[in-house]
Amino acid sequence: MDTATALWGFALLVGLLTITPGLDTALILRTAVLGRRRRAWGVVLGIQTGTLAWGVLASAGATAVLTASHLAYEVLRWAGAAYLVWMGGRMLRDSWRRSPAPAPAPALAAGTAAGTDTAADGPGPAADSGDGLLAGWRRGALTNLLNPKVGVFYVALLPQFIPPGAPHLAFGTLLTCEHIALGLAWSAVLVAFARAVRHWLAGDRARRVLDRITGGVVAAFGVRLAVGD
User: Fold this and answer.
1) FRET partner for 31 with CA separation of 20 to 30 A, picked from 12, 169, 195, 213?
2) How many domains does the chain divide into?
3) Among 4, 7, 44, 9, which residue's Cα sits nearest to residue 174?
4) How far is residue 14's CA from residue 22's CA, in Å, rounded to a whole number?
5) Which residues form the domain of 163?
6) Which is it for the CA torsion 86, 92, 93, 99, positive or negative?
7) Start-end of H helices in 114-196
8) Measured CA angle at 117 (ends 116, 122), to 5 deg
């Protein structure tokens, strides 16, 4: 396998996996539909940070520990499952406890019309701490880094696309960056779509339903990770 064939083949495979709906898609869509554009991009960047970390570690051979050590895999698997179940359960809990949102003030409505993030992410300091880029990045990164199956996926996949004689770390990192580029492009499509349909889902009832669906999906992924082999 030459370099060009490896790059195109890997791009085709991970491209198909990227557009397949899953946990990442649910988190990005839910955050963007709620109007939290900065936080949605934080989730995207966090997910890709986790992808980069797993790819580099797999290229360096470090994630082989997950396949060789049952204990290391199990510890990370249960930590990831607990985090996903907690996050999904929190979304479900908040969707049942949330009271109807008050009507937006004129200044906030003007901010939305102008296309700024003020109304989308909430006013004042709360937006930076709860709905900002860093909060989204933390959620996306933890979701990815606490999933040992991502590491095992890279351990199994990357060696098949590294040409003979190519440096494993450098070429594996290149393939990972290719995966990240495709993920960023698809995430941009998801965020744009979510913002286009956001006005149809602006009501408090629609937001509660969205949180229940997303929370259920996230919690289900956590349960699946816990009971899976």
Assistant:
1) 12
2) 1
3) 7
4) 14
5) 3-227
6) positive
7) 118-121, 124-130, 133-145, 148-157, 168-196
8) 135
Name the 3-class secondary structure at 156: helix
Map tokens 């290149």 to a residue: 174
CA distance 53 to 31: 23
Nearest to 143 by CA among 65, 87, 191: 87
Distance CA 130, CA 121 (A): 9
**Identity (one letter) of the amino acid at 102?**
P
Rounded Cα distance, 41 and 88, in Å:
20
Q: Are 20 and 207 in contact (CB under 8 A)?
A: no
- The token duo for 8 is 């195109």
Q: Which amino acid is at 95?
A: S
Give the whole-angstrom CA distance, residue 157 versus residue 12. Answer: 13
58 neighbors 158 (Cβ within 8 angstroms): yes
Instruction: Going residue by residue through the chain, which has 229 residues, state the pLDDT in tens, using 9 for 90 and above.
Output: 678 888 999 999 889 888 888 888 888 988 888 877 899 999 999 999 999 999 998 888 776 666 666 777 777 778 777 877 887 787 777 767 755 444 444 433 334 333 434 333 443 333 334 458 999 999 999 989 888 888 888 877 888 888 888 888 899 899 999 999 999 999 999 999 988 887 776 666 667 777 777 777 777 877 877 786 5
Whose tokens are 């969707």? That residue is 95
pTM: 0.72
- Rounded-to-integer distance, Cα 117 and Cα 108, Å: 10
